[in-house]
């Protein structure tokens, strides 16, 4: 008797499943089609992105070769063109390299290019800081200490990635502009940072030796 009830229950379940399938099969099939299309679309996107990255990498390498051959104008043009159409990673690198190539012909124009990168919030903060450092380096001989301070003081903060370079430039700018108080401030920051690179520490010590002695009160 129990086997008979089991057979009846099984038949009822099959009938219910058939009714559900007849009612909802179109939605299930549509969902499967959408999933397959989405996966296919994602794979195609990955393929084309990888292809664009590979093409950008090849163009970037050719531009680097032009730079190494001393063809800076051609290299600048190649990097600028790449920056206009490359994927985001190569775009930022190309902009930085284009500015570096421009520095050989027009430091102020190159500094402006770096400033534009530093102001671009669509890129990472470290890229922005690096652009600030590069721009300040080009202006170090011509700008006053106040301008260099405005540009680099935030980058010289204790947790900043490029704090060592920023502090060294600030100390040099202060020294060149006869602000010995500011120069000592940044040299002390360099000396007090346990992660200061040895080479930079040696340069800071040499600059410290050039400062006049502190007047005794």
UniProtKB/TrEMBL annotation:
User: Coiled coil located at which positions?
Assistant: none
Mode of membrane association: Single-pass membrane protein
InterPro entries attached to this UniProt entry: SecYEG/CpoB_TPR, YfgM
Residue ranges of the Ancillary SecYEG translocon subunit/Cell division coordinator CpoB TPR domain?
Answer: 18-168
Q: What is this protein called?
A: Tetratricopeptide repeat protein
Q: Which residues cross the membrane?
A: 24-42
What Pfam families does the annotation carry?
TPR_21 (PF09976)
Heme: present as a keyword of the record?
Answer: no
Q: Where in the cell is it found?
A: Cell membrane; Membrane
Question: Keyword set for this entry?
Answer: Cell membrane, Chaperone, Membrane, Transmembrane, Transmembrane helix
């Amino acid at each position: 008797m129990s086997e008979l009830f089991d057979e009846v229950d099984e038949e009822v379940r099959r009938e219910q499943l058939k009714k559900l399938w007849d009612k909802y099969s179109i939605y299930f099939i549509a969902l499967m089609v959408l999933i397959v299309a989405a996966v296919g679309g994602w794979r195609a996107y990955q393929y084309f992105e990888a292809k664009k990255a590979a093409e950008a990498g090849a163009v970037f390498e050719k531009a680097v070769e032009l730079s190494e051959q001393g063809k800076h104008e051609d290299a600048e043009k190649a990097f600028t063109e790449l920056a206009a159409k490359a994927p985001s990673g190569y775009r930022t690198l190309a902009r930085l390299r284009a500015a570096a190539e421009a520095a050989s012909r027009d430091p102020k124009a190159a500094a402006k290019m770096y400033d534009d990168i530093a102001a671009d919030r669509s890129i990472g903060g470290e890229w922005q800081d690096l652009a600030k450092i590069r721009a300040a380096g080009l202006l170090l001989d011509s700008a006053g200490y106040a301008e260099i301070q405005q540009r680099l003081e935030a980058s010289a903060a204790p947790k900043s990635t490029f704090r060592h370079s920023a502090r060294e430039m600030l100390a040099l700018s202060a020294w060149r502009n006869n602000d010995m108080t500011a120069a000592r401030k940044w040299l002390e920051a360099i000396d007090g940072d346990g992660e200061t690179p040895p080479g930079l520490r040696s340069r800071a010590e040499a600059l410290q030796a050039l400062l006049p002695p502190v007047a005794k009160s």
